[in-house]
Amino acid sequence: MRPFAYERPTNVSAAVAAASHFTDARVPPTQANAQFIAGGTNMADYMKLGVAQPERLLDLNGLAEPALRQIRISDDTIRFGALVRMGEAADRAEIKRRCPLLAESLKLAASGQIRNMASLAGNVLQRTRCEYFRETSWPCNKREPGSGCAALEGLNRQHAVLGTSDTCIATYHGDFAQALIALDAVIEAEGRKGLRRIPFAKLHHLPGDTPNIETDLAADEVIVAIDVPIRAWSHRSRFLKIRDRESYAFALASAAVALDMDGDKVRQARIALGGVATVPWRARAAEEALHGKVLDRDAAEAAAEIAFAEAKPREHNAFKVPLGKRTLVRALLETRDMKVPS
Amino acid sequence: MNQAAPAPKENMGNPVPRIDARLKVTGQAGYPADLATANVAYGVLATSTIAKGSISALRLERARAVPGVLDIVSVGDMDEVDKPEFGNTGASSIAPLHDKTIFHDGQIIALVVAETFEAAAEAAMLIRADYAQETPSASFDSRGTRIEPAAGKSPMYKENLKAGDFDAAYAAAAVKIDQKYSTPTQHHNPIELFSTTAWWQGDQLTVHEPSQNVTGWKTELARQLKIDPANVRIVSPYIGGAFGSKGPMTARTAIVAVAARRVGRPVRCVVSRLQAYDTQTYRAETRHRIRIGANRDGRITAFGHEGWEVTSRLDPYVVGGTSATSRMYNYGSVLTRVSLVHADRNTPGYMRSPPETPYVYALENAMDEMAVELGMDPVEFRRINEPEKEPIGGKPFSSRSLIKCYDQAAEAFGWSKREAAVGSMRDGDWLVGMGCATAIYPTAAAPCAARVRLTDDGHVRVQSGSHEIGTGVRTVAGQMAAERLGVDIDKVSVEMGDSTLPPAPVSGGSISTASVCSAVLKACDAIREKLFAAAVGEGGPLAGSGKAKLEMEKEAVVTDSGKSARLSDVFNAMQIGALEEYAEFAPKGSSPEALKKLYAGQAEFHGGDQDEDSVKYAYGAELVEVRINSYTREIRVPRIVGAFAAGRIMNTRTARSQLMGGMIWGIGQALHEATEIDQRHARYVNRDLQDYLVPVNADIKQLEVILVPEVDHAVNPAGVKGLGELGNVGTAAAVASAVYHATGRRIRDLPIRIEDLIV
Ligand SMILES: Cc1cc2nc3c(=O)[nH]c(=O)nc-3n(C[C@H](O)[C@H](O)[C@H](O)COP(=O)(O)OP(=O)(O)OC[C@H]3O[C@@H](n4cnc5c(N)ncnc54)[C@H](O)[C@@H]3O)c2cc1C
Ligand code: SF4
Fold this sequence. Notes:
The complex is a heterodimer. The termini of chain A are far apart. Among the domains of chain A are: 5-62, Uridine Diphospho-n-acetylenolpyruvylglucosamine Reductase, domain 2; 238-336, CO dehydrogenase flavoprotein, C-terminal domain (Enolase-like, domain 1, 2-Layer Sandwich). In chain A, strand 10 and strand 11 (265-274) form a beta hairpin. In chain A, the strands form 3 sheets. A 5-stranded antiparallel beta sheet of chain A has the order 4-5-8-6-7. A 4-stranded antiparallel beta sheet of chain A has the order 9-10-11-12, sandwiched between helices. In chain A, strands 1-3-2 form a 3-stranded parallel beta sheet, covered by helices on one side. Chain A is an alpha+beta fold. Helix content of chain A is 29%, strand content 20%. Chain B is α+β, with helices and mostly antiparallel strands. Chain B has 3 domains: 1-30 and 357-443 and 608-759, Aldehyde Oxidoreductase, domain 4 (2-Layer Sandwich); 31-354, Aldehyde oxidase/xanthine dehydrogenase, a/b hammerhead (Aldehyde Oxidoreductase, domain 3, Alpha-Beta Complex); 447-601, Aldehyde Oxidoreductase, domain 4 (2-Layer Sandwich), CATH 3.30.365.10. Chain B is built from 18 helices and 32 strands. In chain B, a hairpin with a 5-residue loop joins strand 14 and strand 15 (300-311). At the A-B interface, helix 8 and helix 13 of A face helix 3 and helix 18 of B. The structure holds flavin-adenine dinucleotide (FAD) and iron/sulfur cluster. The site of iron/sulfur cluster has 14 residues of chain A, from helix 8.
């Protein structure tokens, strides 16, 4: 582990100022000299492995603004402060009731200990677990642009089948982000130029030719809040996560589904897919295929076919295509069958 | 009594809580890297990133420049000492810093020593090596491997066993199968990381390192360092999981000792989880071909088991589990053959039931296939083929309670509710499957010494250089002394894990309880004899009771007619303050040099298939229920029942705990565990517990361990069959059997994963 400077700014603007001072806008944020740290469950891990080598850590846990640690629930929005811990949000009864998908996506993630440390903003920004990315002796375009991708022809069981490129096929592993993208969440970030609101769907970048550029955020932008609108589909929503073991494992495939039903017909569907794509993945074409339809197994299967029409499997992850489809079908039907207070 | 502390049945000891439980759960048990060491410097390894070739240049300048770096031991710096050897005490003959050749990925290329761990870690990351690289052979299917017969390559695998005329019997069989099975590379991943702390006081070397073989290591380390073994002390009081990984000494121990001599102060090197995958041993990858022929009535007439195993370029590590599989059932004729496949890998080694786990997996999966072929219930198929004598040498079994195990397990499990037809059991969206398999483990013992001391206040101290690897041997040895000397277990202290104690054999092969308890028993009996003689002798407190039957109870010598004499009175009569006995135990059939070899750290195993009079094995039956989602196909194991018979059970709590841990591990082997290898580069890829999956609590729902009473006086004086490695044998095959029952898919290559069932 490299020596690094550690700083604990006391408010958001001080954090932004410190980050601005120590980073260079021309360097991609993932490689910036100064990095924020919240729960540290991702950042400290990657520093120990030598994957991240910041010269300066800016610890956000000293920020004084109370809103950063609050969950505020109004009639039409749930607003999460960026430093709210995963565990707290997962356990909040009102969230479980009004938008089960949000709570489930958090509850099924990681372990109790990690959920107690990890922040919601940090969770959303967690980096891939690609084995070749995690170990610095392998070529990896995400870690060392231009060095190649060891996973393309290597072991790629856990890798993505959607949103891949010729330079990177790493999966985005987070669960909460699938709920957020399905529910049209909005990120609020403060930077040098002030506060801005970013639709969650615009936050993550596809790998393309620059897998080292992962999000829309600048190195000196701090996420302060996440807004999730509460709509007609929020009650009838759930998260289905299929994994190798019963707990403490990343998704092989997951589906975040929210439905607004008109009798047995779909008025509106919201679908996101996890474990199978390089970024949080909204399946819009599949949603559209369901609109106005009776949601039976055939309709669900047709939607799943559409969702995976563009899938590009590789040697060890081909199973994710049938698995991803079936996960989505199961999630759609289970969400349809939920008992929801009218 | 509760589930964790089952009520003892016939021939079973009390579920005494572990005598070190409190220390362990309160963090006060001193594991080797925790032991206080003044002025310690920190060592961190640098390892190779290629699997084959040689080092053309090692660039250390940037590492040396890191503030706090004291020294770097690298290639060439070990020339003064001897190379490690492969064998019982040595993990591998690959001698990393003696040689520029790279034999496997992750081979040690340097040890950085610094004032702080952080500085050493940083410097180790800055070391750069230039390599002359060659294309490595990763595994079975790679080009460039060298294949050779295993027979004669290891003292543990002398020949391919056979019986009768397999070819003719197989050709003539009415029903037959011929199938291939495989098991992956697996790593032990003990939670306590590997570590070495070494320091010199004059010419005396002390090493703190988690070890399953302190006496053996003392001798081997002294040989490498060319010093007198009397000047080496290995200390390993507690071990946080070993499973065989801490049995053989690796090259690192001598490297750290040399570093400590160079910097003139203690050096501690804790190996990272990642580096442990390459610098320690692991379970070899295996492939199997099994042929079984039978009559239509289900009686087996021919059994053929061929195995292939990956090992390193230099060392002939043999798994060779055909000894157990060829003696499992009443086969008629037997053919076995084992081959080694040398590749550019680190040397594999012992891992919990090393030969049995992969070989019995293949056998039992094949037995299940054969039962299907015969249209027979798989438990019934085993019953029909229960042998009177073992098929290879025609020897009797010292005891064999397998059918009792099946009966009791089946009863508890509700096996009779199993519907035979594949795919016929369902619970809502979940397919239900039920499967079974046999567990077997050889019962062995080795020479062992122990010292027991009793004082007149009833305190007992037991000393033996065995190892508490989590099995509870410290507790059962204490229990043995408490029972024989009639004192409360609270008054017994047990010292283990130090090469200055009376020597004990390597804690491997499930021999510890039998060997240590037999030695402790002998020492206690010598104490009893002296006390009894003094008590009833002239002037003794029980003078005149010479003909009485004597026992020790409640810190007193008691007669069968109810008279008793307090220990202190007997001690007074003897005019002594403490009574101490040193005992050496050697199993029946031991060679004349067996005890001498014990002091040199070499264990001579007896029992299992080695004895003339009988073969000695412990058995169990495991039944599992799996559930597979009919649509998304994830596999879960909600229920498992295992019934085991293993001679005298010293302590029902620790016995259950061992068997439970084994069964859980078996579930992991069935569904999760595999070290993935990048075939292009012969490198392990999932070198951490995030990607190397084992079951978590949520995966284990109902688990029942049944201890089946069994008496066996032939095995050893303590009547104990080791059971530490019994529980995880067979489990994976039982799961495979249940998966087949649920889905009709026969999975032959472990682990069984969702992708095997979905496409
Ligand atoms: C063994 C293991 C299993 C896991 N399993 C799962 C799982 O099943 N599902 C799942 O979803 N996750 C899983 N995780 C990931 C875990 O949820 C994340 O590590 C965690 O959520 C990250 O949050 P943190 O606060 O600790 O982030 P940190 O490590 O502190 O930061 C992560 C990143 O976010 C940045 N950051 C943090 N806060 C802000 C902010 N306010 N503004 C701007 N940038 C910020 C940091 O600079 C850093 O780049 C697992 C992790 C581990 C170690
Ligand atoms: S998939 Fe992406 S993260 Fe993984 S090795 Fe390739 S470039 Fe790196």
